[in-house]
Design a protein that fits this description.
Elements: H1 11-32, H2 38-52, E1 56-57, H3 72-78, E2 80-81, H4 85-96, E3 101-106, E4 109-114, E5 124-125, H5 136-142, H6 147-152, H7 161-179, H8 182-195, H9 200-216, H10 218-221, H11 224-237, H12 254-257
Parallel strand pairs: 1-2
Antiparallel strand pairs: 3-4, 4-5
Helix pairs in contact: 1-2, 1-4, 3-4, 7-8, 8-9, 9-11
Amino acid sequence: MLGAQFFEVDVAACSRKLQSLADRVHYLLRTGGGINDPEVHIRALNHVMFREERLGYDHSADARGNILNYFLHGVLARKLGTCVGLPLAYVAVAQRAGFPVQPVNVPDHVFARYKAFPPLPYPNIECTNGGKYTPDERYIRRFLVSDRGMETGAYMRGLSRREHLGSLFYTAAAIPLKRGDYDQYIWYAEQSLELGPRDAFAHNEFARVFASLAAHDPRRYGALRKRAQLLAQRATDLGYVPVELVPQPQRPTTKENS
């Protein structure tokens, strides 16, 4: 499990938990019918993940700064996550159950999509809202998705498993960066970039950090300056939308959370 080296994680226990959740999904399909119906697959997944397990969005003030919200073991244990961690858990269970569910990137957000042939009328799965369907048009409007980003496949496209792994390397890179282990951070960054060549957000963020490292320690990291420029240009070419431009939803008050 990527990131396990940074935590005390029982990888085998996490794997058993995923299998248990997938088994519960299949039990619903066997007993309720619709085992070959993709729409029923989504309903069964939603029931297990959001009704039985009660996974939900972490609305606390420091949610975005809590690293456990971004890693599978943290989401499974706490039953809380963000728009990164919740789709991660959902997709992991769906794929363990044998269903073609993929993560999809938009600026500052991730959702899930069931990839079926022919396409489903309601394939999108909003994991921060109990698995409810949200149409493409709403994601495009709400998150200011650029036309260029859709043309290049940076946004609104289901990620392959290889690309998804690249996004996980991006997430994991935050830990050595926070610890000041810049050499390890750079290694994680390069793995992420190789696996996810169309991840506009990752390209922009790695460009920003590489430029900072080059400026603060030019003797050791000066060579990263040119790399940062190339990554920033690649992010622009991919249609990157600055996340600070995306309107943030209002955080619920304590009363609304109770």
